[in-house]
Design goal:
- With about 290 residues, the protein is of the alpha+beta class.
- It has a domain of about 200 residues: Nucleotidyltransferase, domain 5 (2-Layer Sandwich).
- Helices cover about 40% and strands about 25% of the residues.
- The chain has 10 helices and 14 strands.
- It has a 6-stranded mixed beta sheet, sandwiched between helices. The chain has a two-stranded antiparallel sheet with strand order 4-5. Strands 7-10 form a two-stranded antiparallel ribbon.
- Helix 1 packs across helix 8.
- The longest helix has 19 residues.
- The N and C termini lie far apart (about 40 Å).
């Protein structure tokens, strides 16, 4: 139960880069928060990289969200690099393909190896989240407030997808929130990534409200059923502590891998700019400008 609880904690932080409080599932909120503030992080986790994958089964068994989290507990710094899902990459044992296909072929482990080879860095850990579970999570929270930036309408009867959102600040149900995330008809993957970041920031803010944090443990058990990771309890706890300190200092940087459009036999790819990708890795992972 302790490991399960800390896993839930870390997911909110990674996707929204926000962590102001930590929840004790036994409701001892204040004492646990004081313990977190006083506990050193270096004994739990050293500087490392974690691959974060969001899998949306509505679009096949592929990783719809791919992010690299770099954390440096000693410096209280973190970086989050988004990797466009259509990026052309070499999948070990498969050859050239879209990077999000790695999860379909070999799960989180093949995705981890693919991103590690692509960025030329060691990535020992991964965390996978089933995005379909967001519907249940948001409904458990009573909805989520989002500023829908434009009219969004799309119907796919075969795929069972119906999106009908009007612009403006509004409280969305779990189903409508997933429609906001899944909308793909406004100019490509980069707008979707920005929309995703806005959504997850709002989700974290909603979850970190005290009323939701002290709610029935059923909410956290719901979250747990959608998570998978190869991090041990010690590493998860260290990661949570490190990200907390990083957020408080405002030492979180974010970037998206640059490139250009590429069509091959009628199939769209995102061709990464190797020089610019190298520069991003140097700055965001190796701290060299």
């Amino acid at each position: 139960m302790k490991k399960a609880f800390v896993i839930l904690l870390i997911i909110v932080v990674i996707f929204a880069t926000l962590l102001g409080v930590v929840v004790n599932i036994a409701s001892k909120f204040a004492l646990f928060d004081i313990f977190i503030s006083m506990t050193p992080t270096t004994t739990f986790l050293s500087k490392t990289n974690v691959l974060v994958l969001g899998v949306d089964n509505a679009f096949g068994h592929r990783s719809d969200t791919i992010m690299l989290l770099h954390i440096d507990p000693d410096k209280k710094e973190a970086s989050l690099i988004s990797i466009p899902r259509d990026s052309l990459a070499i999948l070990p044992g498969r050859g050239l393909d879209k990077i999000n296909h790695a999860f379909a072929y070999g799960g989180a482990e093949l995705s981890r190896k693919t991103v590690s080879n692509l960025l030329k860095i060691d990535i020992p850990y991964y965390i996978t989240v089933n995005l379909s579970g967001i519907i249940d999570i948001i409904d458990s929270l009573g909805g989520i407030t989002i500023n829908v930036e434009k009219r969004m309408y799309y119907v796919d009867y075969a795929g069972g997808l119906y999106i009908d959102l009007k612009p403006g600040v509004q409280k969305l149900s779990g189903k409508d929130a997933m429609g906001y995330l899944r909308f793909r008809h406004d100019g490509g993957d980069f707008k979707r990534i920005v929309r995703q970041q806005n959504f997850l920031t709002s989700l974290a803010q909603e979850m970190l409200k005290r009323d939701n944090l002290l709610r029935s443990p059923q909410l956290f058990l719901t979250l747990l059923s959608y998570l998978d990771t190869n991090l041990g309890s010690k590493e998860i706890f260290g990661l949570a502590l490190s990200l907390r300190g990083t957020f408080e200092l405002g030492h979180i940087k974010m970037a998206t891998l640059p490139g250009s459009d590429l069509m091959v036999d009628g199939i769209y790819y995102w061709k990464l700019d190797e020089n610019r990708v190298h520069n991003i890795v140097q700055e965001y992972v190796h701290a060299k400008k």
